Amino acid sequence: MFHKKSRAAALAALAVSVALIATGCAAGDSGSGSGDGGGSDNLAITFLPKNLGNPYFDTSSSGAKEAIDEFKGTFAEVGPAEATPDAQVSYINTLTQQGVGAIAVSANDPEAICDALNEARDAGVKVVTFDSDTNPDCRDLFINQADAEGIAKVQVDLIADQIGGSGEIAILSASANATNQNAWIDLMETYLASDYPDITLVETVYGDDDDQTSFDKTAALLQTHPDLKGIISPTTVGIAAAARYLSTSEYKGKVALTGLGTPNQLREYVEDGTITAFALWNPADLGYLTAYAAKALIEGDITGAEGDTFDAGKLGEYTVGADGVVLLGDPFEFNADNIADFDF
Ligand code: RAM
């Protein structure tokens, strides 16, 4: 169901998204967001992922669309082909000009899009980050998929178990500036040092959430470190590319691979023994929760202050925590015994 998209397909998706926005604006919502805390009925909410063509964000957007259809707003998705630090700026500027009610963005960099987001907010647009945050002073809320310590711990515990608690490991990350991956990597390093002194992290490389780059970086890691026992890839793009490389190489079953992946992308590699277990949360729920949070901000039900509560449809009621963060839940571990139960 979620196949890797070609760049042409990604661009076609972009064109459709732009058309959707145009339709949303023509539908005549009442201008931009409240700006005065009084609330607005402009439920045009546009999702801006790190990049297009990533099944993880296809799934988060499908959850967002479900939510926005429920409350009869206007869903759209736009985004760059590449997950570079400032690639999202021009999209944010366009959305500000269009006067959407809210932008929901997964940031490629904590700082690079801040000015554009604050201009949007000055114009009355609500800004919700999800998945990968900006600095807190450039958004109203951050919808966090799971506690960062928990995400770091599950991946380190998995690799430690898979390599027998000692030896060399490497990390294949997303882009070098990604807020979420960098936070998790810091915490993984701390946890490795305190709990697994016999495991050595020899290198961290960056596949830029690009399939081919991630594939090539995997090959290079294995060549550079002949004693490598395992790879952690805390990105759905990276782990799928690394699995594809390992599955037809001499390292299959010898070099362990874990991290954060989608069940649909990794199913064949769990079945062929390249991967034994990995983790993630439900990206559809993340998109769904983000959409409801945006609605609550637009309508003036919440401002993003700690203790604010809002209704998130089928997920129930959520409370805003410190620093404007809303937590979705816990990461989940997938393996051969349960992967058949999931379809995303
Ligand atoms: C990729 C992206 C995303 C991250 C997941 C785990 O899809 O980098 O930001 O949350 O992996």
UniProtKB/TrEMBL annotation:
<feature type="domain" description="Periplasmic binding protein">
    <location>
        <begin position="45"/>
        <end position="300"/>
    </location>
</feature>
<dbReference type="Pfam" id="PF13407">
    <property type="entry name" value="Peripla_BP_4"/>
</dbReference>
<keyword id="KW-0732">Signal</keyword>
<protein>
    <submittedName>
        <fullName>Rhamnose ABC transporter substrate-binding protein</fullName>
    </submittedName>
</protein>
<dbReference type="InterPro" id="IPR013459">
    <property type="entry name" value="RhaS"/>
</dbReference>
<dbReference type="InterPro" id="IPR050555">
    <property type="entry name" value="Bact_Solute-Bind_Prot2"/>
</dbReference>
<dbReference type="InterPro" id="IPR028082">
    <property type="entry name" value="Peripla_BP_I"/>
</dbReference>
<feature type="signal peptide">
    <location>
        <begin position="1"/>
        <end position="27"/>
    </location>
</feature>
<dbReference type="InterPro" id="IPR025997">
    <property type="entry name" value="SBP_2_dom"/>
</dbReference>
